[in-house]
Amino acid sequence: MPNCSLSNERTSNSAIMTLTMHNEGKFNPTSLAEFNQALDEVLADESLTGLLISGEEKIFAQGLDLEYLTAEKPDIAMEFVHQCMQMIGRLLSFPMPVVSVINGHAFGLGAMIALASDYQVMREDRGYFCLPEVNLGMVLIPSMNALVINKMNNKAVRDSLLTGSKISGPSAKVAGFIDQCCSLDTIFIEAEKIIAPMLGKNRHAVGGLKEGINQAILAHINPA
Fold first, then answer.
1. Beta bridge pairs of residue 180
2. H/E stretch holding 53
3. Does residue 80 contact residue 33 with C-beta atoms inside 8 Å?
4. Measured in whole angstroms, how far is the alpha carbon of residue 147 from the centre of its chain?
């Protein structure tokens, strides 16, 4: 099975493409390459004006493939982490609106994909947002730290990073880093509603404005 796929069958608007992460959304060199290829395909289709990112079953994305990372040489593993953050940088400056449709657990890099999206719609009844680094004995690299502190308020950053707690959709909405919570049956409907005001805008303008908004993060991902 591929690690991700593209379809516009989940929405009523054919100009919105959905990128679905498979295989629990674990990122290794193969799955990262497929994810980037999917972004390339979306950009190449000029009829598209919006992108939704989701997972399958009860998982949005588990994040970094820890089995791959622990088996790899430390310098190669660290380089891969930087490559993953370059993908996050693509989302932060993607020249069309991006919504994370969080159908289930969003852990680590999966949570960061959600934060890097313009909007976030999360299932209300199950699934957690989690930055588990403290439980794994890990620290954030500077680009990850910049993403988190710029997309979450100080209290949410403290509670997420220092406890590694699992945060439900309703709690994440109260904390301000999730835009909407709803049932699984309506999650794509709500995503369409929330993305609607940004659809059809000039790609160059959208990308440029997003680069400006996210400059403090992008400076750490792609330093001069």
1. 121
2. strand 50-54
3. no
4. 11
In contact, 102 and 126? CB cutoff 8 Å: no
Would you state the pLDDT for residue 177?
Answer: 94
pTM above 0.90, yes or no: yes
Mean pLDDT of 77-100: 97
Please calculate the CA angle 184-187-189 and round it to the nearest 5 degrees.
Answer: 135
Label the pairing between strands 50-54 and 16-21.
parallel
- The topology under which CATH files domain 4-221 is 2-enoyl-CoA Hydratase; Chain A, domain 1 (3.90.226)
Closest CA to 25 of 110, 103, 102: 110
Answer for the pair 20, 56: CB distance below 8 angstroms, yes or no: yes
**Domain boundary assignment for the chain:** 4-221
Q: Please provide the distance, in angstroms rounded to a whole number, between the alpha carbons at the two ends of the chain.
A: 38
Summarize the confidence of residues 68-90 as an average pLDDT.
Answer: 96
| CB contact at 8 A, 17 and 7 | yes
Residue 194 tokens read as 């929330």
For residues 30 and 61, the answer to whether their CB atoms sit within 8 Å is no
pLDDT digits (tens, 9 = 90+) for 40-56: 999 999 999 999 999 99
pLDDT score recorded for residue 70: 92
